[in-house]
Every structure is written in C-alpha cells, then in structure tokens.
Description:
A: mainly alpha; two-stranded antiparallel ribbon
Amino acid sequence: MKLWLAVLIASASCAALKLAGFVVPARLLESAVARRILEALPVTLLSALISVSVFATGNHLMLDSRAAGLAVALILVAIRAPFLVVVVAACATAAGVHAL
Amino acid sequence: MSEPPADEHPLTDASRKAAERRIRNRALTIGISVTPFGLSFGAVSVEAHLSVVQVCLLSLVLFSGASQFALVSIIGAGGSYFSAVGTALLLGVRNGLYAARINALLRPSGWRRFVMAEVTIDESTAMALSEAPSGNAARAFWSTALSVYVLWNVSTVIGALVGNALGSPATTGLDVAGPAAFVALLAPRLTTLRMRMVALASGLIALVTVRSCPSARRSSSAG
C-alpha cells in the first residue's frame, strides 16, 4: 500500500513539475533577464548531466572507461563528425576500455 | 533568445528532406541508446519488489529515467519512501526548467501543453534546442519525444518481465551513449565565450557538489 502511494505520488508530482514550466505566464518569460537565464539553463543542466554521468558513480568521482568514451566524443564533435559516428565511436571506445 | 521563425529560412525541397532525415535518424539513435537503461530499470524495479504494473506506471507517467532510478534504487536498498520520493522529485526539478525553455521556444497552447509537458526531458529538450537555429525545433522535439517514449516503455516492460538480458550498460559502452549524444547536440550552442564558460562551470560545479549529495542513482543519464 505504501509502495503504491510512493509510486503514485512520485509519478504525479514529477509530471506536475514538467507541467509547471508550461503554465508560467508568457510575460514572465519575455523579460531580458528571463531570456538570458532561460537560454543558459538547458546548457547548464545538460553540461552538469554529462559530467556527472561520466565522472561520477553514486557520489564518488571516478575516472574509468566512460571518460575515454567522452574524450572520443569531444574529438569527433570538434572535427564535425556525423552524430551517429560520435555516439557509436564513444560507446565502442568505452566498451573497449572497459574490457581491458 | 532570438529564435527565427521557420519562414526566415527559405528551405529548398532537398534541404528540407535532408533536415527531416537527419532529425529522424538522430531521434532513433537517441531512442535506441536509452533502451539498455530501460531494461536495467525494469529489472532493478522488480528486484526492489515493485509489481510489473507499478514499473510500467512509472515509465508511462513519471517518464524521467534519473528520477525513476532514484526512486526504485532507494526503495530497493531499504530506504524510506519519503527519501525515495523526495530524491525523485529533486531530480525531476530540471524537467520543469527545461519546460520553461521549451515553452518560450515553441509556445504550445491548449491540450498540446499537457502532452508536451509529459515528454519534456533531457533528450527532447537537447534535440529541440539543437534544431532551433534551423527552424525545426518542434519537429526535433516531437520526433525525439516519440522515439524515447516508445522505446523507454517497451524496454522497461521487457526488463521487468524477462530481466536485463543485455547486462550492464558499462559492458557495451552504452553508458556513454547519452553523454556523447548530449555533447554532439550541445556543441553548436557553445559558439560564444559566455556559453562555453557556462557549460564548463556547470560541469565542474556538478562534480564538486555530487560528492556531498546522497547517493541515489544506480545508473545515470537516460531521460
């Protein structure tokens, strides 16, 4: 019963969080400050997501096969390799280093 | 932000087709890259004594990989339901912030807002932003949302019913599929020094602060 409650509350409130961004009055999103913040937000969040999913396991920092994959991805992006090549090469590198 | 409307880009038929193909292929690649996490999530949830119905409900309604993993990992480890739900919520806050950005970019109205909100996650946001300069943000958002939503839910069910046949995402290197895709999608946004500094600082701050966060995530990245 408690488990059901946890599942339902988590589902409903996480869905509500997503909806919150869509019911913000338009005028609040149009000020110069809001625009600057909004423009930087996804860059901030995705950069944090990348670094945590590559360099951390739980709350420990870790340098492992994922870092090698990321390095390859960065190089390929810098030389403008196609999207699929970036993703596949990064995975192959990480898998290779992991297997060593 | 000065997102140009689509009609400022007079696209030829050929370049429009090329953009459509590019978006479709990327959306599919991203969808496929979340499936190992979906399988893993399904399997982990059943181990944590969730029923298959509960697991499916999480993927259908909560639909945010990091929050879902946090919830079931804490429950599975015997943590309190309160901290499980609280951690899932904290991780879900970023979707609300993405939503504000997507709202400003695509301005959906009426019922569309509700559907759009449900599928506003890392992947759909990153794809929409990367296609904003080409005027294809909406197509990129919906394609990615559909691809990830379907493949995430299908892989969750399979993981819950038959277990994680693929093994750990680390073995196949698929644990970097998400980060690699996000690097590729973010790169075109990092044209100014300000944005580069924002990205670099965010990555570093996240690493400094992650050490003092409660350990919740067994796996990362997806959605």
